[in-house]
């Protein structure tokens, strides 16, 4: 029989895929997302030589093919990102949060930042460039940027630090492009110095991530929108425990902790910024400007 990866997925198989990606990655797929499953898993069929989506799900149900399981989870992830994403929010981070943290930690001379769900690396590299611009204030400091994602495939791309013309045009100012990137044909490679500032690790947010330690700043932007409320609550609780007492958490503009956890409270100064509810004081900030 001729292979047909484009053949529509049947109801039972669609239900299984929804259950599978929710269990493995916390991803919620509404009944209206059938088209998304078909469009993203069709290429997986072709890549792995499976006849159609029914064959893929049959192998997935068997539970013996770890490579297939990883491929399905990675295919269903939305890896939308860009440099200096959400300009207003990033300005708060680079012009207020980071300078405030640096001033407040002058005695310890240590700063830890975590970019969760980092995708292909644009966010952590944006943080690295922002900190590099403050290098005069960070001489002799121990600065660590940890970037994580569930997808090994996007982490490999992030570590390579190579981006297309389209990708560098999305949010990256020309000054930073010329300062930190070198062109290789149709791609741009970020400098080794900036790459060395970031450590990439595979982390699934619906599982325990306590081994990463505690951070002064955590960015978990535009991630929670893909989870149900119970999963959001669990993740937010663990994020709160991953913050130092006066640390700061930045969420996406469409995300909130309200009604989900009492361990975090909104910062009254900046939308999208949160602090530990039991913190001795709010996260140290400098006036943006």
Keyphrases for this structure?
289 residues, alpha/beta, Chemotaxis Receptor Methyltransferase Cher, domain 1, Rossmann fold, 2 domains, seven-stranded mixed beta sheet, three-stranded antiparallel beta sheet, 11 helices, 41% helix
Report on this model:
By secondary structure, the protein is of the alpha/beta class. It has two domains: 66 residues, Orthogonal Bundle (Chemotaxis Receptor Methyltransferase Cher, domain 1); 190 residues, 3-Layer(aba) Sandwich (Rossmann fold). 41% of the residues lie in helices and 18% in strands. The protein is built from eleven helices and ten strands. The strands form two sheets. The protein has a seven-stranded mixed sheet with strand order 6-2-1-7-8-10-9, sandwiched between helices. A three-stranded antiparallel sheet has the order 3-5-4. Helix 11 links the parallel strand 7 and strand 8. Helix 2 crosses helix 4. The chain is globular. The termini are far apart. The mean pLDDT is 90.
Write a brief structural summary.
41% of the residues lie in helices and 18% in strands. With 289 residues, it is of the alpha/beta class.
């Amino acid at each position: 029989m001729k292979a047909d990866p484009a053949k529509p997925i049947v109801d039972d198989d669609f239900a299984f895929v929804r259950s599978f990606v929710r269990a493995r990655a916390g991803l919620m797929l509404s009944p209206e997302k059938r088209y998304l499953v078909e469009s993203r898993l069709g290429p997986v069929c072709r890549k792995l030589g499976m006849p159609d989506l029914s064959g893929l799900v049959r192998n997935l149900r068997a539970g013996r093919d770890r490579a297939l399981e990883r491929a399905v989870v990675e295919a269903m992830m939305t890896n939308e990102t860009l440099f200096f994403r959400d300009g207003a929010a990033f300005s708060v981070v680079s012009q207020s949060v980071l300078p405030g943290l640096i001033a407040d930690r002058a005695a310890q001379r240590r700063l830890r930042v975590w970019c969760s769900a980092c995708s292909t690396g644009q966010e952590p590299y944006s943080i690295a460039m922002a900190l590099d611009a403050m290098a005069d204030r960070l001489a002799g400091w121990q600065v660590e940027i940890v970037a994580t994602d569930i997808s090994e495939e996007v982490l490999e791309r992030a570590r390579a630090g190579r981006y297309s013309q389209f990708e560098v045009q999305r949010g990256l100012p020309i000054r930073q492009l010329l300062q930190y990137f070198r062109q290789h044909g149709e791609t741009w490679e970020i400098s080794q110095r900036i790459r060395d500032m970031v450590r990439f690790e595979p982390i699934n947010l619906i599982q325990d991530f306590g081994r990463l330690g505690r951070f002064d700043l955590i960015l978990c932007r535009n991630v929670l929108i893909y989870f149900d409320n119970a999963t959001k609550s669990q993740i937010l609780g663990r994020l709160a425990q991953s913050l130092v007492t006066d640390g700061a958490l930045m969420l996406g503009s469409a995300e909130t902790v309200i009604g989900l956890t009492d361990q975090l409270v909104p910062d009254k100064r900046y939308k999208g910024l949160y602090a530990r509810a039991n913190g001795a004081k709010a996260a140290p900030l400098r006036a943006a400007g």
